[in-house]
Amino acid sequence: MPERAVCLVSGGLDSATCLAWARRQGWECYALSFDYGQRHRQELEAAARVAAAIGAERHVTARIDLRQFGGSALTAEINVPKHHSVEEMGQGIPITYVPARNTIFLSFALAWAETLGAGHVVIGVNAIDYSGYPDCRPEYVAAFERMANLATRAGVEGNTPLRIHTPLIELSKSGIIRLGVDLRVDFSLTRSCYDPSPDGHACGACDSCLLRLRGFADAGLPDPLAYVDR
Amino acid sequence: MPERAVCLVSGGLDSATCLAWARRQGWECYALSFDYGQRHRQELEAAARVAAAIGAERHVTARIDLRQFGGSALTAEINVPKHHSVEEMGQGIPITYVPARNTIFLSFALAWAETLGAGHVVIGVNAIDYSGYPDCRPEYVAAFERMANLATRAGVEGNTPLRIHTPLIELSKSGIIRLGVDLRVDFSLTRSCYDPSPDGHACGACDSCLLRLRGFADAGLPDPLAYVDR
User: Fold this and answer.
1) What residues of chain B, 95 to 114, have a C-beta less than 8 Å from chain A?
2) Number of other residues whose CB lies within 10 A of the CB of residue A77
3) Structural domains for chain A
4) What is the ipTM of this complex?
């Protein structure tokens, strides 16, 4: 029986590359997305396309409501910041930061992994282009893994421990794109924009678009997505 | 300005005692409950009563769906195990264990705490009468606290660290009941049964009822709740 992995899939190019990486390990992959009231709901449709295209065994979207806690441009009625270049982006933790988001996502992944008997969780966090999010750092992921192995039956009964894999953590955006190309990811299925137009065009000016565009430029590859005229 | 605390409130007597303990510290308390498809929905009504009676600043019920992951008698269609005494209860991790439940609950508490600027999270876990749940052990709570302080702005920006408080962790059930009485908790507002009758009577035979009944007996106090005739 193949080993099982729970893979967090957002619909973006990072998590699509992670899912393809997990498939390449030979793991049976269970794709997990979150409907957390995000403004960019096109992500969820992209996540379903990506999971199907890359061959996930199953795709589940967990509905959670972070809006009642407030506090982020991605879930509340705050304008998404726009810039003309990566250099112009703010320093420090951006207002698009969602409190404890990766901790909540990994906690759900942990619950599903325990139910499935999966020994692997894969998350596309990245410490290079992470835009100042505290929960994208290696020391955070290591602390989560340690906690997870004390939280579950595996920790008590001495079964196989859970590993949290972060195959992108040391890669630049262009490195992620090159890895995805190697793994034959169809990036036209992915979505990255925090603030797409109603007809589905990416804004080209939010932090996520700027990092994506620079990644494709640095990799010397065209981005297959449509962007609004600026 | 008083310090703020997020207090997990289930509607049971343990978390009611925790909330009263947190109020006694002088903290402004934000009560957090979860609607996770539990069969014993009377808990949620009890949680709202308890939060109001003990003086929480606000009470939020977060809706999360663990049923799609399966795997527990409390959320799936498995019969709740019944016994005649505490001694007859099973050893090891019971089938009422919900995978990663406390990790998910604490993750939401962490998100709200960060949004509120709260430096305290209070959870009524108990290592004595914990019935074999791995995520009720002190080493688990310590690992979560460490992870939480790497996950958030506090960890990056060097603000006040978050403390996870477990005021009941070393207490027996009778010790918890005595503490609650000292703190003037009205235990008639609480609910503990995993499988109450339609008219709201506790079954008196699930693990949770058996522990509660023995706790009141050991404390030499009457349980104010109504139980079904057996």
Assistant:
1) 97-104, 107-108, 110-112, 114
2) 8
3) 4-219 (3.40.50.620)
4) 0.87
